[in-house]
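Provenance

Sequences were taken from public entries as deposited. Structures were produced by running a predictor on each sequence independently, with no templates supplied. The record for DUF885 domain-containing protein from Pseudonocardia halophobica is shown for reference.
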Amino acid sequence: MSARTIRDLADAHVAAHAELDPLLATSLGLPTGQDRLPDLSPAGEEALDVLDRDTLARLEAVGEPENDTERRCARLLRERLAAAQATRTLGEHLRNVQILFGPVQNLRTTLTLMPAGTAEERANLAARLAAVPAAFAGYAESLSAGADRGLLAAPRQVDAVVAQFGSWLAADWFASFAADAGLPAGSADAATAALGTLREFLAREYRPRTAGVTDAVGEERYRVAVRRWTGADLDPREAYDWAWSEFHRILAEQRAETARILPGAAPREAMAHLETHGEVVVGLDAIRARLQGIMDDTIAALQGTHVDLAPELLRVEAMIAPEGSAAAPYYTQPSLDFSRPGRTWLPTLGRDRFPMWDLVSTWYHEGVPGHHLQLGQWALSAGELSTFQASAGMISGNLEGWALYAERLMDELGFLTDPGERLGYLDAQMMRAIRVIIDIGMHLELTVPADSPLHAGLTWTPELARDFFGAHCGRDAAFLDSELLRYLGGPGQAISYKLGERAWLAGRDAARRARGADFDLKAWHMAALSQGSLGLDDLEPELAAL
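Predicted structure for DUF885 domain-containing protein:
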């Protein structure tokens, strides 16, 4: 066995996967199939399943890895493919209707990553828009096949997606996108018509069949979903109990910070006060520039002291998200050759006024030292690792855990001394703790504990969760409504942030204990980020060994 046998196998798997799913190729910056879209029918998923099984068989035939990098790659590849198979076995791809992680939403987001500067690039865009009707027809075929088997999305998700597609149609999004890309008039007509057809299918044919489907997915589906998002066989009830302890700890910190802002007030009152009396940025250009400044200033402050950023990582762009996106900000990774930089995206939800108290910590999460540093470092390490470890095999628990750890790190380093900005950081921490509580609570229909300030002794429902969230989170109603739909539609993803942060902190603490006075935080950060993707079952012990 050569020194790169398993990594070469992983790279071959990514290349084959990108042939079947050209949107993955675009996300990674690979040239494969930029004029095509994936097959979203059951046959398309079956082709992916065949590929995964073949790769697993080849992996088993390789034998024991020869070095640590090969060992980590083998564990990741085996775990990710097994998680995908478990998800398919439950037929999740046949009922994937949700506002954030659905195939149509992924298609739209990927289109926004495509360049349009040359005639060839514009031709690729035009070809992909022309392929939208076939892709959407394949998606409808998958949903019909699921319905025939009794595998259906919950009515709440279908209604939300129908409304989401309606907002895209009202804004004529495909046509606006094509015009901005410099495509000829009419290039998006077929895509727009196909979106209308898909919306009608969901509303008229699919929605009536969902009667009686519950929002809660139950323990079997939930545990498989958690494995998909975290790379770990977590005990949801242990996580639920731990999250309640975090809730009470953070609430105490919030009350102490509130006393510095508005003595005698409750934390939620202080947050409302900051909406009008704290720093406010008005206008889309102004908020984009302000967020860009946060990232540029953070790079300047951390470079050489707490991290060592390669020249490629010094560029990150703040962007305004397209209308009709989910409410939460997000990050898109750089291409592997860095021709497309890392980008943060702010959904505006129709606003042009932006209080800053809760955005500073968020941009540490989405930008620097959060997602941009981790995913950028992975891209830099792709040649030493594998494309699978550096991008295609990414796991939410690792990614979001690092990003939440990055927020905490900036607090530990003294960057959140402003009381309003620190309350924003604590609000972000509280939101992630509540995510664990209500995501597990709703899907497993658990009981609210006796020491809860609201709804003690009741069984979690979406309505109770929305009420609890609103009472303990400083975000506006539209954001909270969008978040609740996200948790119900993508079970297990929301818990990956706080549980991932727990693993990062535990790994750091173990490494510090092992090395004592020789522990170097900057060196540990760079070594940790150069390992590539790891699931939470492996993350803590690997971090502890650095």
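The chain is about 65% helix and 5% strand.
The two ends are 26 Å apart (CA to CA).
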